[in-house]
Amino acid sequence: NAGVTQTPKFQVLKTGQSMTLQCAQDMNHEYMSWYRQDPGMGLRLIHYSVGAGITDQGEVPNGYNVSRSTTEDFPLRLLSAAPSQTSVYFCASSLSGDQPQHFGDGTRLSIL
Amino acid sequence: GEDVEQSLFLSVREGDSSVINCTYTDSSSTYLYWYKQEPGAGLQLLTYIFSNMDMKQDQRLTVLLNKKDKHLSLRIADTQTGDSAIYFCAEAPQTGANNLFFGTGTRLTVIP
């Protein structure tokens, strides 16, 4: 099993550009989440999904969209990139709400 | 939102025990987790404890939970240089949602 796979690993964007961060898991996990990690702030929840077709907002959802058309994939879209979105983004998944989350290796995103 | 606090830095000598502390505010937390992050990598689940437990031991790791004081600790016995990393405490405040609130992380440095 590959676990949780995130692509790309690194990306540089210009302000105003859009892009999609990909996340895929092959463990048949129902729950998937996106977090961002900023220096000195730990990880903060952006959006999450409790199953295919169901998504909800986390602590810091503004400027991001998600969809969950399949169990395996949970892409994160930046609609119009801003320098404040420079961060490391982590995707995570778990079998259910009571099970530990497993994290991908992250996408390091810089917005110029 | 929930507040999870950790001290930022800890240094120990190789072979000594390390104790990393965490406090949280949500008394309805269901699970509490410890994750390890090595430089440039994702988060690795170390251990977790259910809120109705006081202690959990797993090889060199011991987790203690004081629910009355909302205090969680991670003890690493016989600390090795490979244990140098950032350690994150996280709480899951809602049953069934599994959305984690993270502390800022404690950077553990092991001195040979």
List keywords for this structure.
heterodimer; A: 112 residues; mainly beta; seven-stranded mixed β-sheet; four-stranded antiparallel β-sheet; 11 strands; 0% helix; globular; B: 112 residues; six-stranded mixed β-sheet; five-stranded antiparallel β-sheet
Describe this structure in words.
The complex is a heterodimer of chains A (112) and B (112). In chain A, strands 2, 4, 5, 6, 9, 10 and 11 form a seven-stranded mixed beta sheet that branches. In chain A, strands 1-3-8-7 form a four-stranded antiparallel beta sheet, with no helix packed on it. Chain A is globular, with a radius of gyration of 13 Å. In chain A, strand 5 (43-51) and strand 6 form a beta hairpin. In chain A, 0% of the residues lie in helices and 50% in strands. By secondary structure, chain A is mainly β. By secondary structure, chain B is mostly beta strands. Chain B has strands at 4-6, 9-13, 18-24, 31-37, 43-50, 55-58, 61-66, 71-76, 85-92, 101-102, 106-111. In chain B, strands 2, 4, 5, 9, 10 and 11 form a six-stranded mixed beta sheet that branches. In chain B, strands 1-3-8-7-6 form a five-stranded antiparallel beta sheet, with no helix packed on it. Chain A binds chain B through residues 31, 33, 35, 40-45, 48, 50, 58-59, 90, 92, 94, 96-106, and chain B through 1, 4, 8, 30-31, 33, 35, 41-45, 48, 88, 90, 94-105.
